[in-house]
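Tokenised fold entry reproduced for everyone:
>
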Amino acid sequence: MSVLMNSFVLGLQGPCLPKTSHALRPVSNPLRSRSVRALPTKHRSEDVQDDLHTLLEILPRDLRDNLRNEPRRAQLLEVVMDLGRRPEARYLGESGGQYLRSTEVSIEELEEAQHAVGEFGGDNRAGIEGTLHRISAIRSRKGIIVGLTCRVGRAVTGHVDMVHDLLNYRKSILFLGRPGVGKTTVMREIARVLADEFHKRVVIVDTSNEIGGDGDIPHAAIGGARRMQVPEPSHQHRVMIEAVENHMPEVVIVDEIGTEMEATACRSIAERGVMLIGTAHGEQLPNIIKNPTLSDLVGGIETVTLGDGEARARQTQKTILERKAPPTFPFLIEMREREYWITHWTERSVDMLLQGERPMVEVRQRDDQFRVVIERQKLYEGDGI
């Protein structure tokens, strides 16, 4: 067992520590403040495949030529085209955007781009077959497309090293983070690693074809994982249950858990012994705790009235909040930045936050040599309840 896994165990020691079938060897003289693991040679740097030329083909010729000569094209995040406004390019790590020309976007240019992309689904999203790019539409009240967001999809290897040790526990993991922080990219690589390296039966419930790409044949970036497409976003929970009942997966991966029915489906899947890897709407654990729709993912919250003696013993009010069930996801990771993650042992963190205390967490980040650095027993710096 790696030093990285042992550091996690030492950081979360106690009765709540999840059981694993692997024997853990004690670490002699562990670092008090942090534990560092040097990545294997093949993961020393990120390997990025973006098929950017395919996305550029749907843009007007002048924008296409402009972006082909752009020195920052490797950091291109998305291209925004709104009717009557100048087209804009946005880049990773930069606030705001850059105008690509001085003239406004015309309705003809939007129609040409729409025809090049093809049919949009019920969620107003479309893709380019064989790629991971996502095209999202803004429509007028009459249903006419008046804006397009052309998002670059990249297959990035190397991110899984931030969480590789947790996969050994075979416990479900929930990822939180703002849009654009890289949640879907991580889902894609975890699917590949679990299928190809851990040899698990992995099924991806791919609602908007963001993980496996557009088209009937999934992108090679998901490795041997299987992909189930969802006809309508509102049917995601049904496809999740169908995946378990029909295809006997050991792992189910689902992006953007956002409704009560999807949260219920997650609990049903977890109770059948299936490992879940998912993302949810929210940036920090307290966002999920306070969200009545999604709080079941972290165990749910209930109001409890204590007796006078119990309240005095706890030194609390008689009416308190408590977690009412085991969390669906034993691990929860806040992706603050692409290379800066906060790891929670969900059960302990939820209990402490409900008691008005700050839990101890792990901070995972990379140093300037691209090595994963884990700081153990860090006091949580997020919001309270």
